[in-house]
Amino acid sequence: MTSGLPVPSQVGHAGISSLIMDPECSQLLPALCSVLADPRQPVADDTCLEKLLDWFKTITEAGSSLLLLQENPCLLGLLCHVLKPQDLSPRVLSFSLRLAGMLAAQEDCFQYLQQGELLPRLFGEAGPLGGAAWTAPSVRSGWIQGLRSLARHPSALCFLADCGAVDTIFSLQGDSSLFVASAAGQLLVHILGLSLQGPAEGHPGLQTGDWPVCAQKIVSHIEESLRSAATPQITQALNVLTTTFGHCHDPWTQVLWGRLSPLVACLLEKDPVPAAHSLVDLLLSVARSPVLSSSSSGLWETLAQTLSHLSPTQAGPLALGILKLQECPQVLRAQAFAVLLQPLTCVLEATAQAPGLLDSLDGTGGASVTVDTLLPSKAACVGLLCRTLAHLELLQPLPQRPSPWPQAPLLGATVTILRLCSGSATPTSDAGGHLCAFLVGCVRVQRAALDFLGTLSQGTGPRELVTQVFAVLLEYLTSPDSSPTVLKKAFQATFRWLQSSPETPGCSDLDPHAHLFLRELLPVLPKRLCSPCWEVRDSGLEFLTQMIGRWGGQAGFRRALLASEVPELTEQLLRDPESYVRASAVAAMGQLSSQGLRVTPASPEHPGGQQKSLLAELLHILSTDSEGFPRRAVMHVFTQWLRDGHADVAGDTERFVARVLQVASQDLDWEVRAQGLELALVFLEQTLGRPSSHCPYAVTPPVAAPPSSLAQALRPLCRVQLFEFAFRALFDCDRPVAQKSCDLLLFLRAQTASYGGPQGSGSVPEVASVEAALQRWQAGDQGQPLGYLEPEVVVAVLRSMDLEGLRGALAESSDRVEKSPQSLLQDVLATVGALGEDEADCY
Amino acid sequence: MKLYCLSGHPTLPCNVLKFKSTTIMLDCGLDMTSTLNFLPLPLVQSPRLSNLPGWSLKDGNAFLDKTELIDLSTVDVILISNYHCMMALPYITEHTGFTGTVYATEPTVQIGRLLMEELVNFIERVPKAQSASLWKNKDIQRLLPSPLKDAVEVSTWRRCYTMQEVNSALSKIQLVGYSQKIELFGAVQVTPLSSGYALGSSNWIIQSHYEKVSYVSGSSLLTTHPQPMDQASLKNSDVLVLTGLTQIPTANPDGMVGEFCSNLALTVRNGGNVLVPCYPSGVIYDLLECLYQYIDSAGLSNIPFYFISPVANSSLEFSQIFAEWLCHNKQTKVYLPEPPFPHAELIQTNKLKHYPSLHGDFSSDFRQPCVVFTGHPSLRFGDVVHFMELWGKSSLNTVIFTEPDFSYLEALAPYQPLAMKCIYCPIDTRLNFIQVSKLLKEVQPLHVVCPEQYTQPPPAQSHRMDLMIDCQPPAMSYRRAEVLALPFKRRYEKIEIMPELADSLVPMEIKPGISLATVSAVLHTKDNKHVLQPPPRPTQPTGGKKRKRASDDIPDCKVLKPLLSGSIPVEQFVQALEKHGFSDIKVEDTAKGHIVLLQEAETLIQIEEDSTHIICDNDEMLRVRLRDLVLKFLQKF
Q: Do residues B103 and B89 touch, judged by C-beta distance below 8 A?
């Protein structure tokens, strides 16, 4: 088979290899090989072997493996050496097998290795396969991966056939190590694909009888496995087919499916259906394959049959898969949807909801089977319901979701599930009683149902159902039994439903319905903010922040909020012992203050006394809080305030920015410093009179006419010491900060250029001293401050700096030096102490 | 074996178990819900209370809920499971002719004493000039206003006991430790096991050699302060009597503690006071511990906490010294220089202050806003009455009910109209139904006996099938004043053999592994213990004595007939008969064996599996001959 193939020319390659492997590495390689070949010097670290393989891979992909071997005979030496009977570690053996496979991927190199009979000795019966080393899973895995790399050309196929590797791979499919078993399956798929690439291509009508021997052997093995009574074997066969159809859409796959589909159909006749999960995966893979789904007759019938044969738990994923298909017969989609909805139908039936709801949910008579699945055990019931809800949640936003989408029954069922979980639903049958007993207090189902309920807010529903939704949400938000995670989900779902509730025409306030709800919700919120459980306080604050962000400007909401204790409590939570809560409180207070919702009542303790301003309080947190989260939150609030022209800031913006930058520059948390740069950028944009490009919706404060001269424009920036902050950040030990600062300075330089003119005529000695200081900073000595800088000096320094170069250097990953192959080789040698000098220490 | 059920209150049980000639009372809880029919006893004469229309000021007594189902003087022992379940003890030990012993653990007795002392103190410090009892007459009772009119068996309501009676009752208690085995008259053994509900709370095992009854009352699987529940020892019970489950199965204690803290913080932040009507021991320790962790985070460090009870000091101190009865976590603290409960630190830092009553030091220290823990949870007596009157008018204040024993709405009735906020956060750490079903699966008793309330969902939530005991076979339920025959029969009794008698036995192996020996002995029964003693030797006739011992004194000493075993092979028997000259033998098969007919002699030999009859008319010679022939085929020993 290989005789007709062109043999690559071996001339004209001289010199290429030196491009691939630098001389330093070539020099180190013999020492490495001898270390690897020496059983007395075990390589402690698997990862360096993996890195070595990665390196060899890039080398072999870029150039000729044959040359590599010829130029570095030590590699061949290593491969020969591992075959000698000795006590070599399995990881080195595995490494050698994978290396050999990698090298033999090129046909010329394969032939070269074949000449020395090296490959049969490595991969054949005589090799590790028959030895004691085979018991190590890493060796079996290396053997498979080696063959996987090797099998690239027709010669390899012959080799595989000759050395009987395929039979070994068959047996490895059932290996005790899952990694090995899975790799074996994938190798089979690969070999099948390789063997059919040449001859079968372009002949979709070809019979399998005309296929290459190797392919026929694999197909027969799959057939045999499918006929087997043992589930593991069936699973293996199904997995191989799933991978094949998932990866390859060549016409021959059609022939293969044509031959095997009757056997797969036979599996459906067994009770219970063996390897149901794998079967579902296979059928979905077939249905997704463009070649198979368009041509194969009977696929849709098989899918329909499978849907009705599998248990509700197993059929769920199949139904979801079918509904996600782009093209699929309507009847099948309807059947799949009915299967998916069955558990919810049972729930509705168990609580005897209005019959109208049931009709639209259930078209088939499968519900009794589902009841049987739901009721025997709590675990089964909870599992099935959670999966069903998760499937429907995935389906809801898809364009190909079933239409008409049964929004109302789904809402009804979800609300019922939630009420069963809280014990407030009244079951009307024995089944309902059981369901109630299983679900009461079940946190898993509550979470899944609340997630799905939130998703359902995207659609509308009948008025009375929406009322029920809000009622059940309120029940969860009020109940002392709601666990913190459930409560968080309830808050999220509530926000989504409030968001989607229709706005009153004419004004953008909440609709009266949601208003009523809010009136009941607001008394609950203070209690949640006082919860002993910090997660609850935190999610309460997050919810509040979202609410203010959305409705802070609406009169009705403002009135309700101001009448409650919420604003005051939120302020108290700025001093919460839990840092996450403090951070959320900072965000919420920022929002409250932005919307003018911060109350400053004369408290009994300070009658008529001046309350500390929020700005001062937040600055205090920024400079003293021991945790990073609250400080980051403060920086976000400040940036937002600056952007929005918040009253507290607008009074004396320069003083505010100067103060914040000064505190932020000392912060140990790089995110705070990075956020400081963000704030600096906003200030810069506002000062230079350019509308902010970052937030198109931000209200820019009325800016005075653009300053006439560059010096005038830069003066405010100099006054707030923005440059000192930015330059310091430029040499920050944390790369993101330095990058951000570099971007900011580049932006500034571009801005200054737009002013044009021969500016930057600052006195030379001053510029030189600044540059000298910056160099010291870069060297790590950031002690000395720059002091006040004149705009001219700044411009001169900016222009003289190689900011682009710096940006390039920063863009490279920081470990580029450590990742070089030379460093890797040195590391490997160093760990085993083979770098020379200390050999004498042993004696 | 019978169970007499004297209380209808599932969490304040009182049952009597008759088992192997012993009469054991299991708990004697005092149902005080009837106090809700009375007006509060104010510390200061309250014009408002005394002028309420339609209410007549009666004396506030405590009441006993018992029936004349059984003569209580016959009770041998009383087993107490926790301090809440012993509040009726003085009524039983002092007024019924009871002469037995009471068993309880030390913390149960000490804290039980505190509860009784507090109760007596609350009642006695507001003495009544006169007491009325004529109204208990049925004809007059009919004329009374509604709740009193409908009250049942008011004639059994009693005055509160005195401290003297308490002391006398407590003196009859014998202290026991967990897993200690106590023999009762040699008939049964009782053992207390940790039940995890309160300091020293116990479940009891009552067992004989072949029967085991477990009594589970007031147990908890939550990690609170007491030692965890011992479940393993409850395994293999024939009967498990299950009482004292949570009274609020729908409320999760953790959620309720959260609710308690949130409401407390909200009230105090707004300048209001919080009143917590409570018992002086139990949940209050856990609440103080939660608050200890919570007050700093909630910014409440400056708010004073007051604990007012005649026994407040003792209660707080006792809790710290019962190290061996605490959960493991707290036990280990004993070896560190810190007390097991953090309320010690609260006291040290002056955040928690305790007073015997609101008179005296308290009135000078009192600072508002504050949090007050005080009794009694019924709001009918104790210092709580004063605080209700004091704070009830302001909507800034909050009363938080944590004890589930009384309906909070009924408790509040005489204080209406009330501006104060009322929060109901019942904290009941006793087993809920999910935990019970796990427990029953784990210990697998043959039969479960429980109050009838537990065998059906609560009336208000009839759909909650999860709020009832679900076990196989279904639990047997009892109600007040019912006698239950427990469904198992005693089959075996253990008998000991004296060593010298055992020595004289010569067992013969009749089947591999099974040996038999005949025993001749005297069965001696004393203190419910049975012993086989060697028979007295036949007395030698002594000429010197005139009177012989009557021979029927030692009937067993006559020549013993050997015992027979084996079966008779019919064919060989017939051959033997023929050999001995019998002819004309006919054999008939019957359902149970064979009949051998000797027609000439008009004689029948009926051979069955376990008997052989020779029927012949008046020919004793023949019968003896035939008998000897039969005996040849049997083994003798």
A: no
* Residue pLDDT, tens place only, A620-648: 999 999 999 999 999 999 999 999 988 88
Alpha-carbon gap, residue B271 to A430, rounded angstroms: 51
Residue A202: pLDDT over 70:
no
Q: Residue A227: what are its φ and ψ, rounded to 5°?
A: -85, -10
Query: Are the beta carbons of A149 and A98 closer than 8 angstroms?
Result: yes
Distance from CA of A478 to the nearest CA of B (A): 10
Task: For residue range B232-268, list pLDDT tens digits in order.
Answer: 999 999 999 999 999 999 888 989 999 999 999 999 9
Residue B255 to residue A482, Cβ atoms within 8 A: yes
Long-range contacts of B432-439 (CB under 8 A, 24+ apart): B432/B245, B432/B246, B432/B249, B433/B245, B433/B249, B433/B466, B433/B467, B433/B468, B433/B469, B433/B470, B434/B466, B435/B221, B436/B242, B436/B245, B436/B469, B437/B469, B437/B470, B437/B471, B439/B216, B439/B221, B439/B231, B439/B234
The DSSP string of B67-124 is -TTS-GGG--EEE--SGGGGTTHHHHHHHS---SEEEEEHHHHHHHHHHHHHHHHHHH
DSSP string, B525-593: EETTEEEEEPPPPPPPP-TT-SSPPPGGG-GGGSPPPPPEE----HHHHHHHHHHTT--SEEEEE-SSE
3-state secondary structure A625-642: CCCHHHHHHHHHHHHHHH
Alpha carbon distance A50, A681 (integer Å): 44
| Res. A11 pLDDT band, cuts 50 70 90 | very low
Q: How far is CA A507 from CA A329, A495, A656, A707, in A?
A: 46, 19, 36, 40
Kindly state the percentage of chain B with pLDDT values over 90: 44
Equal CATH topology for B253-424 and B564-636:
no
Q: Report, as an integer, the average pLDDT of B190-217.
A: 94
What residues have CB less than 8 Å from A47, skipping those under 6 apart? none
Mutate to test the interface with B, among A416, A530, A533, A564 (most CBs of B within 10 A): A530
Closest residue of chain B to A421, computed from CA coordinates: B464
Classify domain B2-246+430-485 by CATH number.
3.60.15.10
Contact A528 B463 (CB under 8 A): no
A272 CA: distance to closest CA in chain B (Å): 30
Q: B32: distance to nearest CA of chain A, Å?
A: 29
- Pick from A425, A436, A481: CB nearest B252: A481
Q: What are the sequence ranges of the domains in chain B?
A: 2-246+430-485, 253-424, 564-636
Give the CATH number of domain B564-636. 3.30.310
pLDDT at A559 over 50: yes
A590's tokens:
């920022």
Residue type, B325: W
pLDDT at A376: 75
Task: Answer whether 0.90 is exceeded by the pTM.
Answer: no
Q: Look at B299 and A575 and tell me if their CB atoms are within 8 Å.
A: yes
Nearest-CA distance from B82 to chain A in Å? 28
- Residues of chain A found within 8 Å of residue B251, distances taken between Cβ atoms: 480-481
- Domain B253-424: give its CATH architecture: 3-Layer(aba) Sandwich (3.40)
Q: Which residue of B has its CA nearest to A428?
A: B463
Are B262 and A426 in contact (CB < 8 Å)? no
Flag if A436 and B466 touch (Cβ within 8 Å).
Answer: yes
Task: Show residues of chain A in contact with B294, CB under 8 Å.
Answer: 532
| Calpha distance A146→A139 (Å, rounded) | 10
Whether B266 and A434 lie within 8 Å, measured CB to CB: no
Nearest-neighbour CA in chain A from B243: distance (Å):
22
Q: Do A532 and B297 touch (CB under 8 A)?
A: yes
